[in-house]
Structures are given as structure tokens and as C-alpha cells.
Amino acid sequence: MATVTFDGATRIYPGTERPAVDKLNLHIEDGEFLVLVGPSGCGKSTSLRMLAGLEEVNEGRIMIGDRDVTDVQPKDRDIAMVFQNYALYPHMTVADNMGFALKIAGMHKEEIRKRVEEAAKILDLSEYLGRKPKALSGGQRQRVAMGRAIVRQPRVFLMDEPLSNLDAKLRVSTRTQIASLQRRLGVTTVYVTHDQTEALTMGDRIAVLKDGLLQQVGTPLEQYDKPSNVFVASFIGSPAMNLGTFPVVGAAAKVGDSELPLTRATIAAITPEDDGKVTIGFRPESLDLVDAGTAGAIAVEVDIVEELGSDAFAYGVIPNLDPTASLQSPQVIVRTDPRAVPKKGAVTHVAIREGEQHVFSAATGERLPN
Amino acid sequence: MAFNITAAAPDPALLDLPWDLPLEQWPADVVAALPRGISRHVVRFVKLSGRVLAVKEIAPRAAHHEYRMLRALSGLDVPAVTPVGVVAGRTDRSGDPLDAALITQHLQFSLPYRALFANTLVPDTASRLLDALVALLVRLHLGGFYWGDVSLSNTLFRRDAAAFAAYLVDAETGELHAELTEGQRLYDVDLARTNIIGELMDLEAGNRLEPDTDPVAVGDDLLARYLRLWAALTEEETVFGNAKWQVAARIGELNRLGFDVGELSMVGDETGTALKIQPKVVEPGHHARRLLRLTGLNVQENQARRLLNDMDAHRHELGLQDESEEFAAHDWVAHVFEPTIKAIPADLRGKLEPAQIFHEVQEHRWFMSQQEGRYVPIAEAVQHYVDQVLRHRRDEASLIGVDTLSLPPVPDLPAPPP
Ligand SMILES: Nc1ncnc2c1ncn2[C@@H]1O[C@H](COP(=O)(O)OP(=O)(O)OP(=O)(O)O)[C@@H](O)[C@H]1O
Ligand SMILES: Nc1ncnc2c1ncn2[C@@H]1O[C@H](COP(=O)(O)OP(=O)(O)O)[C@@H](O)[C@H]1O
Ligand SMILES: [Mg+2]
Ligand SMILES: [Mg+2]
Asked: Which positions in chain B touch A40 (Cβ < 8 Å)?
């Protein structure tokens, strides 16, 4: 097992100018489950492939443990790419299917048996080791394939969108299974996905990428509670955070008819480039329905109400917005108690819960202190 | 998503297939029994509008990806199965969704490797399959294609004179790049090595492998052969002395390997005593193209070699050396090739490709001549070959009886312990 370090790792594809991955600095702890997440084309797969040795590193280096592997061939890196298409061989026993790669490597029979038995235990396959794949269920076969990777005892597992070909229901159950298996094995794992829900539910930490640049690394909670910029704020969380840019009047941001007070630290961090504006963010689930008279209450004209049983979501617009204000999405989303849903067409008032208001620079999108 | 078909040239008859049934349940009157390799997805063959199609049930995203990859490969002119289309948005009779289907054209005369091992006793089968696979892999890599799942199961083989020609059949994990890195190429070869050793060990476990074949040695050999061919096709070489002769020698060597040189870079050093030469563009099919140009016959590379050799022999035999090559070729087609093929009874012609039959007749004639210690005329050899060999051959355009193991591609990892 090992740590993984991207040290200023850069990949520029031939014939392109902008790096697909730009000076990536990322340290992954031993045994950690790290998820690389971001929209399509942001450089996730390229990062993973650099770690695997499949993509050249044009600048910087990559370490596995204390070893600089930047120029090491993939097969000599002691990594395993999991969920590749592992075929099962019909005439070989389950034990041989799991252990044959070790046999090729010239490993001693005893050692192979030991490893196969260990892996079988973890995978709940002990009693099937002497059988042929034909006698197994689909799920058991898949586990045998997984066992092929496990018996090699690689220092790092790499997974690139392993669930992308499954239907929605299977995706959900499989992702918890992968996460729990990884925790039992304790092998450092780097996992790529474009799906932020998958990232939030699986990763010990998440690294968010955009345009080849690392945006933020942190636990799911850190990413959710303290997004470091507008991109992360809008990418993490579902439904997405409400985000808008509003004029600053005195010590408050003017959002429609209401004024949201800003702290002294926030005000002090505003620069001339911000042009007298700030970007405010609040999650649909950070809102409480309040009376019109409450301080900081924002009016919302409700267009649509979506009731999902356990929750309800109201979609609406903020009336009387300043002409210089702009919303990232024209509709504001409010999550409410399904027993107290605002009526379609009504004007309701919401307040952002204490400590759940996010403020970003209007010019740079970076988080401002509060 | 609503039912939809993606296809470059859609055949309306596709709509007649029972898309509302899981592929595994397609009735016997729709399905053609042909041999298949090992696969995790369900694959079936169907006869439609006079051709045979292969249908693979697979997740929609993967189906579309594989379709795109196969289209790109046909654009690159790399031997691979030809994509026909993707059927997605399928539902069963109670309205529940079914996986998508990738449709490809069944590659005629192709043999999955298990069928070859199930029947041939020819020594060295493994080694000859390997040569074909290495040639395919190098071509794919030259074109910027990373396969990601190289194996004997994911390759189809066709007889190519005494050798085999390999075709890619499973592009599910493929990626097309402008150019591959060394890491990508060598990783692909390493995957190939592991998979092939596994596949041969499996044949061994089923008592189907020639007893003196060592799977690990075959796998190691793959790497060595790949590296040799890659170097011959791409390596820069510094030559001194008679540069003209050495450049010609390098080109000759590439031709011998079956490649034409589309572009060769030659750079002199400052002192003017050395020249660096490096092939920049190489195109496979040197002999096949030459034969096509001379005769209009479109055959595989090794078959072309065979026919060209025979044509040369014919030219010498008849003293046509002074005639143009085109004239000699024309004479050979009219007086040797066509009469041989026409001498095969029509009902037996579908068993093998014509060029392959020609090759086998020539081999047969050589053996007969050796055995009988006399010159056996071609007409006699054809007759003997038809009666003694071809009639007893199974029909390779539609060979039956090799089982496929289908494994559902459904990940199901263990639940966490309580
Ligand atoms: N167009 C075709 N012509 C002839 N045979 C074909 C064709 N398509 C598929 N086959 C046969 O079906 C088998 C399985 O196909 P394929 O490899 O695409 O399935 P798969 O489930 O994706 O395999 P894997 O488990 O390797 O991912 C092949 O080995 C081949 O023998
Ligand atoms: N082989 C390649 N050649 C050129 N550009 C590439 C190649 N692979 C990826 N890219 C480009 O690099 C960027 C990052 O791609 P990728 O790492 O695949 O992103 P992701 O996995 O996040 O979707 C994209 O702009 C993509 O178009
Ligand atoms: Mg396959
Ligand atoms: Mg496949």
C-alpha cells in the first residue's frame, strides 16, 4: 500500500495549446479513497492515465509511495486498473481464474494459494474455489473477476467510471459495495467519475477539476459546506446551489427587495474589480419559510412545486431584482417540508439559515471570508 | 428513451427482429448457429436480407461507444468487424427496459480461436495465431488505437494461405488517439500477454492444447514479436557508406514484412558521412495491393504472397520474363487461377474463399508430387484435392457446434459484513 502524489503534473496533448491537466498538485494518503470529479473534458481521465503510466507527463512528476514513477512502465507501477473486462475461463476453477496471473509471474504455489484464499474470504467465495465459473451466479462471477485484481495486492487501485454502463438502480447499489470493499481492503484507490453524487457518497476526499485545473480538494462535507469558488459551489450538491450576483449597498447585498447583511471581513475583501457586486449562494436546503417581515427574508414568486414524498421543491423567481443583478439560473429552488408546500402562483418568503450563506467575489468567483 | 436505431445505412428488415425479447430468448428460427468466442455479453447471429449479422446485448452507452470505435476503425482501414448499427430504447412486452444491441456484420469465413483448437491438429497453431494478432496489434497502434482488451476471444481469425489474418471483434474498451504513447502500447501488449496465457491455460485445462505448447512461453513470445515488428516499422536507423543501397534494403525489408513505405525521412548529419533514415508512414498490404493492381483479385496479404509467387513461377515456366508483368499476370489468371477455381464443384465452393482454395490446391499438388516422385499436373491435383480434402471439410462460412460462455455483465460485489 502506498501514498500517491501528483507533483505539478501536467499533460499537454500534441497539437493542443491548453494543458489537459495543468500543474496538478495532489497528495493522496495511504489507504485513502480519493475521487476525481468534474464535468466531461475537465481532465479526470487524463490525470488517472498519467498515474497509470498510459499518458505522458510533460512537466512535473508522479510518486507512488517514495518512488518516482514518472518514467516507469504501467506494468511495473504496482497498480491495478479495476473493472476492466476480466474474462473468466470456463475450464479453469474459480481458484485458478483468480490466481493465474500470479502463476504467470512465477509466484510460488503456496503463496498463490494463500492469496487466493484470503481474497476469496473477503469476496465471500471461499466455498466456490474448486468450482468452475459456469456453476456461479452472475454476481459471483463478477466477484471472481474482482478477485483477479485483489490477489495481485497492488499498491493502488484505479477505477475510471466503472459504473457508467450500469442502469441507475444497479449503479446505486454497486457504488456502496465498491466503497465498502475498498474500506475492508484498505488499498489506496483513485476513482474517476463525472457524477458528483457518486463522488460525495463514495470518497474519503474529493478533488474537483475544471478545465484541467484543480479547484478544491477536501472531504465531501468540506466541499459541500465551504466550496472554495463559484464553480465548486454550483457543481457539488443536487439540486444545485442557488447562485446570483447582486449589488452591494452599504454593508449588505441587495437581493430583490431584501438586503442580506455582509460581515465586515467580507466587505473588506471586496476589490475594485468586483465593481460593487458580490456573488451570493444558498442551497435549496438552506432555506426556511418565514414571514414577510423577518429580517433578510427574500420574496419568491412560486412557479412550480414538485412533491417527492419525503421532500418538496418549489421553483420560483425573485421579484424586483436590480437591473445589475444576475442569477446563474433564472429560477430559485427552495426545498420545503412536504406538509407545508407553498402554493403555485403564491409569493412566499424564505430566509437563509444562519451560517449557510456563501459569498464569492463577483470578479474572480473565489470564496470571500465571512 | 424511445426505441431508436442508429445506423449509417439502415436496413428496414432490422425492424422485423424481435427487439422486445431479451437476446437470450430469441427463437431458433431467427438465430443462426455459428461459433463464438468467450464473452460476458450475450451474442447471437441472425440471418437478415441475405447476410448474417452479429447482435450483442450491451449497455446503451457502451453500445454507442463501440459502434463509433468500429466506424473509426473501418475509416482507418484496419481489419475489424464492420458495424451495422445500434438499437437502443428497447423494452420488453411488459414495458420494462432492455439493454441496447450492437449490430455488426458477421465476418465470413472467420474462425474464433476455440474453433481452431477444437479441430485442427496442425502444429504451431498458437504460434501462427500469435503472428496474426501481433500484426493486427501493430496496425491498430500505428493508427492510434488503444484496444484495452486484447485477447484471442476478442479477435477473429481467417485462414490466410498457410498463416492466419486477424480481425478485431470487440472494441468496447477501445480509445482512438492522435498517437499512442509508449505506455499505452506496452500496456496493451501486456494485457494481451496476460489474456492469451489465460486463454491457452484454459484450453490446456480442457485438454485442447497441443501438448508441447507452453502458454507462458507463447505469451512471452508475443511481446518479443511485437517489439520486433514495431521496431522494424518505426525505428530510426543511422547508415554509413552506400546509403542508396541501405535505404533500398530497409524498404525491401518492410515490403517483405508486407508493408509499403508511404514516407521515409532521410536526414544527413553535419559531417555528411551518416544518414538517419526512419519510416514515417507505412501501409500494410504490400502484396495484396500489388496483386490487386495486377489481376483485380482482392485477397488477404499472405494469400496474395502465395498467388504472386505462383504467378512468378508461371512466368518463368512459360518463358514470359521478357513480357510485361501485367501481361504475365493476365495470362496466369486466365490459364491457372480461374481454371483451378472453376474446377471446384459449385456446391463445394462456399467452403473456403477462392484464394484459400487455390493455396490449398497448390499445397496439395506439392505433397502429391513429393509422394509420387513425379510432376503432378494442376488439373489432376484439383480433382484429387476435391475428392480427398475439400469434400470432407466442414463449411467454414457457417460452421456449427462450438459453445459460447456468456457471462452477464452485471457487477454484484459483496455486501458489507454485518
Ligand atoms: N461480427 C462478428 N462476426 C463474427 N463473430 C462475431 C462477431 N461479433 C461477435 N462475434 C463473436 O462473438 C464473440 C463475443 O463478442 P464480443 O467479444 O464482442 O463480446 P463481449 O461480451 O463484449 O466480450 P468480452 O467479454 O471480451 O467483453 C466474439 O468472440 C466472436 O466470436
Ligand atoms: N488523446 C487525446 N488527444 C488530444 N486531446 C485529448 C486526448 N484525450 C483527452 N483529450 C482532451 O483533454 C481534455 C481532458 O480530457 P479527459 O481527461 O478525457 O477528461 P475527462 O475524463 O474529465 O472527461 C479534453 O479537452 C479532451 O478533449
Ligand atoms: Mg469480447
Ligand atoms: Mg467486450
From this structure: none
**Predicted complex ipTM:** 0.82
Helix H or strand E encompassing A7: strand A4-11
Hey, which residues does A214 pair with through a beta bridge?
A209
In chain A, residues with a C-beta closer than 8 Å to the C-beta of B186 are 73-75
Q: Return the number of other C-beta atoms located less than 10 Å from residue B211's C-beta.
A: 6
Residue B326, judged by CB atoms within 10 A of its CB (0-12, 13-18, 19+), counts as: exposed
- Residue among B291, B368, B378 at smallest CA distance from B340: B378
Strands (E), B40-168: 43-48, 51-58, 83-88, 100-105, 145-146, 155-160, 163-168
pLDDT at res. B399: 43
Going along B127-257, which residue ranges are E strands? 145-146, 155-160, 163-168, 175-176, 237-240
Q: Is B57 in the pocket of ligand 1 (CB under 6 A)?
A: no
The answer to whether A55 touches A11, Cβ cutoff 8 Å, is yes
Q: Which of A114-128, A159-173, B56-70 has the lowest mean pLDDT?
A: A159-173
- Judging by DSSP bridges, how do beta strands A79-81 and A156-160 pair with one another? parallel
**pLDDT-based confidence at residue B323 (cuts at 50, 70, 90):** confident
Using DSSP, state whether A365 is helix, strand or coil: coil
Answer yes or no: do B405 and A133 touch at CB < 8 A.
yes
Q: CA A121, A123, A126, A130: dihedral to nearest 10 degrees?
A: -140
Ligand 1 touching residue B41 (CB < 6 A): yes
Strand order in the sheet with A79-81: A79-81, A156-160, A188-193, A33-37, A205-210, A213-218
Burial A183-205 (b: 16+ CB within 10 A, else e): eebebbbbbbbbbbebbbebbbb
Give the number of the atom of ligand 2 that is nearest the alpha carbon of residue A15. Answer: 4
CB of B214 within 8 Å of a chain A CB? The answer is no
Instruction: Give the model's pLDDT for residue B119.
Output: 52
Grid coordinates of B49:
436480407
DSSP A284: G
B154 lines ligand 1 (CB under 6 A): yes
One-letter identity of residue A352: I
> Cα(A206)–Cα(A5) distance, rounded to whole angstroms?
15
CB pairs under 8 A between A and B: 138
Mapping DSSP to helix (H, G, I), strand (E, B) and coil, where does residue B94 land? coil
Strands A258-261 and A252-255, bridge-based pairing: antiparallel
Tens-digit pLDDT profile for residues A118-146: 999 998 999 999 999 988 887 788 788 88
* pLDDT tens-place string over residues A287-337: 999 999 898 899 999 999 998 888 899 999 999 999 999 999 989 999 998
Amino acid at A160: D
